Amino acid sequence: MKAGARNQIIGTVKSVKKGDVMSLVKVDITQVSTMASVITTESVEDLDLKEGDQVELVIKAVHVLPVKLP
Amino acid sequence: MKAGARNQIIGTVKSVKKGDVMSLVKVDITQVSTMASVITTESVEDLDLKEGDQVELVIKAVHVLPVKLP
Amino acid sequence: MKAGARNQIIGTVKSVKKGDVMSLVKVDITQVSTMASVITTESVEDLDLKEGDQVELVIKAVHVLPVKLP
Amino acid sequence: MKAGARNQIIGTVKSVKKGDVMSLVKVDITQVSTMASVITTESVEDLDLKEGDQVELVIKAVHVLPVKLP
Amino acid sequence: MKAGARNQIIGTVKSVKKGDVMSLVKVDITQVSTMASVITTESVEDLDLKEGDQVELVIKAVHVLPVKLP
Amino acid sequence: MKAGARNQIIGTVKSVKKGDVMSLVKVDITQVSTMASVITTESVEDLDLKEGDQVELVIKAVHVLPVKLP
Hints:
The structure is a homohexamer of 70-residue chains. Chain A is mostly beta strands. The first copy, chain A, has one domain. In chain A, 10% of the residues lie in helices and 56% in strands. Chain A has one helix at 41-47; strands at 7-18, 22-31, 34-40, 54-59, 65-68. A two-stranded antiparallel ribbon of chain A has the order 1-2. In chain A, a hairpin with a 3-residue loop joins strand 1 and strand 2 (22-31). The B-F interface holds B 1-5, 21-22, 25, 38, 65-68 and F 1-5, 21-22, 25, 38, 65-68. Strand 4 of chain E pairs antiparallel with strand 1 (7-18) of chain F.
């Protein structure tokens, strides 16, 4: 999909929990290799973030947009 | 890390591109199994999203928060 | 309103669906001309995005902030 | 596009300003009728938000995802 | 301001660093008492989050919208 | 915490309202001095935002990530 987002990850829906207004969708990830993050350059320098560092990528579920594949 | 986010993914920094105010960080994902998305129940019903469906999870890089591991 | 956001769109509330913690508000748009998106330059180049291209702007409802007008 | 987002708005790219890491894309909106916002029910009650109210929808450009149409 | 956001914090601009497309604005906070976060109920239960717990609220700068006061 | 976010604010959980899928957490802020916002340079110039200006920082609760401290 030609979307202006750096992270596009394929998976299979594992569960859907429907609430009154919001729903929680869980997805088993089939394959992901590289992900991208944009942060301030000040943060990069504060963390002294560089190639080879081990990181944990934290992403709130509200920021994850599922697109149903044909 | 005890953070209130459903998605916490481990990886290794692959590259850091520093800009004047923002930077782009690429991360090779070591291991991820399940991811979570929160969308409106209306969207779930419109898409008729259910277990077994193939989806693409789209996540803008600005929504990805890297935490440096010791 | 002097807010640091590029998109400020006037409309009339059409419906409010109240949930236990979150609510879904629908708004009929009276008038909008131009909208703005910020993405990585890498995405612009990957998509070869340029003047005249047809696009669909996708915006999750959690990212839309309503301000009540007097 | 079968995306889990309530707002999908068609338009034509008007301008692209490329920066070192981020770019600003302006889009002329061809047609939009209804938009959706998700806020806390507490906010709805604080604002006494109801059908017929005039609102301004404020959306930061980083939250707007452009998808290039064929 | 009658905005549908739970967090509205008053402060004084301390510095503005202008980049080619994005800018970083620092603000000295004059007064803030209570802040609000919305997370999944699953996260609340995983973290066993309850009254009296010490927390750190992490907020990316791209999610902070400044509104200039008269 | 070595996170790539400019805003990290310490506080004490005041209340937790659990919903079917989402929960609202209120936090009494113990101490915050400076906060940061990233907006487009165009917005800075439109607002003529500069040192000494009084601003209100508006942050939706979904963008606030709580991390439980030991």
